[in-house]
Specification:
Elements (H helix, E strand, L loop, with lengths): L4 E10 L3 E4 H4 L7 H8 L3 E4 L3 H18 L9 E5 L10 H8 L8 E4 L5 H14 L5 E8 L1 H4 L14 E10 L4 E8 L7 E2 L20 E2 L1 H23 L9 E4 L4 H11 L10 H4 L6 H12 L6 E9 L3 E9 L13
Parallel strand pairs: 4-5, 4-6, 11-12
Antiparallel strand pairs: 1-7, 2-3, 6-7, 8-13, 9-10, 12-13
The structure holds coenzyme A.
The site of coenzyme A has 20 residues, from helix 2, helix 7 and strand 12.
Length: 340
């Protein structure tokens, strides 16, 4: 019997306690709860109150995923962190995880930078490593500290994003939980969402200060995503893998905009009970949004396991990817929430 199939054994998530409501944003610029909610579906988002809090929540989310997987932290043999807006560039987020979890072995740890596609890209990498027999227990972490990189004077972008963390353990076993997966990118439209690194550090070159904040062409992003997601990502992956949409119980899309989620829902012909959305309370948590939405939905009883789910992420790069995964019983257990 095959023993190198990817099994999603545990997931975890954590969100900060500090809430920023739409009404709070009205103190920064001319906007309103009505404008933001009607265009995005967002009412509030969370932000890390400090780096210490961010790392403590990172530790908790990872411990939760490992515990849900029924493993010890020292069973993990690879850490991948998907983060494009990290708390710090060095040490990497994945190496921070190794330290925060007190992992005593010198296992490999690396970060990937694919913005809001982080979970699906990370899953694709884990899938390949598990199937090839290279690693047995992979901890995939998603973490974006969006509030650190957003231009809080820009009402077109700062309304959208929030902070959060997700974690998943993918283990080698004899059941397949990644039924389909595909990732893609188109760097030619990279300027739709960009973040320049500040110039002016080296005294021998250009000293023009450049703000290091997220810059987004909202309308272009919206059109790009609306044009590619339903037909070229989700329907393509279902078709290539002979999976019928009606045989998949849930749609867990990257939480970027409620209007995008609704459009995909309509195209798939899904009723509301099949579509997981938490954007109203958390905004767009970038790489983490799919894992947070999944964990929350299992916790609240909106996803009943075992079940299959379409997952799909998209964002800066532009990068995107989709998969059909199996959410097994016990992948998220309430009793393991925020284990210290
Ligand atoms: N409050 C009030 N008015 C606002 C506003 C705000 N927060 N943000 C923009 N406006 C104004 C603009 O100034 C503009 O006014 P003008 O015509 O007088 O200049 C008008 O609203 C329309 O601006 P526009 O940027 O065209 O808005 P939009 O309808 O495209 O909505 C987004 C903006 C960001 C909600 C929308 O483009 C979007 O959701 N894009 C996708 C972004 C996304 O998902 N990114 C993440 C991908 S991972």
């Amino acid at each position: 019997m095959a023993n190198n199939l990817p099994m999603i054994m545990g997931i975890g998530y954590a969100v900060p306690s500090k809430v920023v409501t739409n009404n709070d944003l009205t103190s920064l610029y001319d906007t309103s709860d009505e404008w933001i909610y009607s265009r995005t579906g967002i009412k509030e988002r969370r932000v890390f109150a400090s780096d210490d809090e961010a790392f403590e929540l990172l530790r908790q989310a990872c411990n939760q995923a490992v515990k849900n997987a029924g493993l010890d932290v020292n069973d993990i043999d690879l850490i991948i962190a998907a983060t494009s807006m990290p708390v710090q560039l060095m040490p990497s987020t994945s190496c921070m995880v190794q330290k925060l979890l007190n992992i005593s072995r010198n296992i490999p740890a690396f970060d990937i930078s694919v913005a809001c596609s982080g979970f699906v890209y990370g899953l694709d990498i884990a899938n390949a490593y598990i199937r090839s027999g290279v690693y047995k227990n992979i901890l995939l972490v998603t973490m974006d500290n969006c509030s650190r990189y957003i231009d809080w004077t820009d009402r077109r972008t700062s309304i959208l994003f929030g902070d959060g963390i997700g974690a998943a353990v993918i283990s080698a076993g004899n059941e397949n939980d990644i039924l389909a997966i595909d990732i893609k990118a188109d760097g030619h439209v990279g300027d739709y969402i960009k973040m320049p690194v500040e110039k002016g550090n080296c005294p021998f070159v250009d000293k023009t200060p450049t703000p290091q904040v997220l810059d987004m062409k909202g309308q272009e992003v919206y059109k790009f995503v609306a044009n590619i997601i339903p037909p070229y990502i989700i329907e393509d992956i279902l078709g290539k893998n002979n999976i019928k949409a009606e045989n998949v119980e849930y749609l867990i899309l990257h939480q970027a905009n409620q209007r995008i989620i609704k459009a995909v829902q309509e195209r798939l012909g899904y009723d509301d009970s099949k579509v997981i959305s938490n954007i109203e309370n958390l905004g767009n948590t970038s790489a983490s949004s799919i894992l947070i939405a999944t964990g929350e939905a299992i916790k609240n009883g909106n996803v009943k396991t075992p079940a299959k789910a379409i997952v799909c992420g998209f964002g800066a790069g532009m990068c995107w990817g989709a998969g059909v995964i199996r959410l097994r019983d016990g992948v998220f257990r309430k009793e393991n929430i925020f284990q210290k």
